[in-house]
Amino acid sequence: MHPPSVSTGRLAHLPVSLFGSVMGYSGLALAWRLAASEFGLPGWIGEALAFVAVSVFLLLTLCYAIKCIESPEAVRAEFAHPVAVNFFGTPIISLLLLPAVVAPYSAALTKALWLIGTVSMLSFAWLVVSRWMSVRQKIVHATPAWMIPIVGTLNISIVGVTLDVPGAQAVSAFGLAVGLFFAVPLFTLVLSRLIFEEPMLKAHWPSLLIFLATFAVSFSAYLSVVGRVDLFASSLFYLAVFMFAVLVPKLLLRSNTPFHTSWWAVSFPLAAMSNAALKFNLYQQSWLAQAFALAVLAFTTFVIMSMSVRTIAGIARGELRTLML
Fold first, then answer.
1. What's the pTM value of the predicted model, to 2 decimals?
2. What pLDDT, in 10s, does the model give residues 223-262?
3. Which of 37, 203, 247, 271 registers the highest number of CB atoms within 10 A of its CB?
4. What does the domain layout of the chain look like in residue ranges?
5. What's the chain's Rg over C-alpha atoms?
6. CATH tag, 16-324
7. Within a 13 Å sphere around the CA of 141, how many CA atoms are in the beta-carbon half?
């Protein structure tokens, strides 16, 4: 999924997609905050995860800045790659999720991060769509990662509608419109590639959960802008539940696949599903909705904690390059 490094710098093999871990930690922190308010679960868990999310973001930002300085050719190769380029959306989406994470602590920082993230997300989406229209693409490169740069605009509204910033609600609605519009053709395109072309490598199967994130985030974004669970919102949530039922068993059946950092691609989709389930339960309370929300939250927490342990253990053993190939 990522191009081979063309440099021998200390962090030349560090993929920008690792920022997906920040997205996962951020989403999980928000989910635990919701769970604490809905079910009376310990509030400190969400705050601890929020601290981890911010810390990992700062650490990865520093490390990738070092990569840019020491191995600029590796960064250019990653950006030029037809698949890897889409993962440059992960640090930008992180900037759209972190405002919700830090909102209880600093209103000024929340606004600043959201403004930077919004401008960056819209600019990156424009750049990617322009590239698609200017350079002929190969269907074999149409992977779920293609949905990150455009569907990522949905995250603008997660915090945007709550901010006292001129035009924030209009921009949130704009991001929702762009994300929802492009989600349909991109989903169709990638699905047709998966059906009719050679199957993806097993190491890249975790990225399939990006499909789940598309519908789960669409539900949360639509709910943020509209403020109620109507028929369309319910339909988005039910689609997310269906994709969850389809994709999670496939990943579990491939649990014998060697662990790579690409597995972090599952963290945010699962966290987004947790948030969607908890929000849906607020509006459609029933024992089934509650049980599903708690089950998804527990599963997501287990998966993210397991990947954290395996990633830290691999780095401690000096397996950084192997983990990131």
1. 0.91
2. 999 999 999 999 999 999 999 999 988 776 555 556 677 7
3. 271
4. 16-324
5. 19
6. 1.50.10.150
7. 14
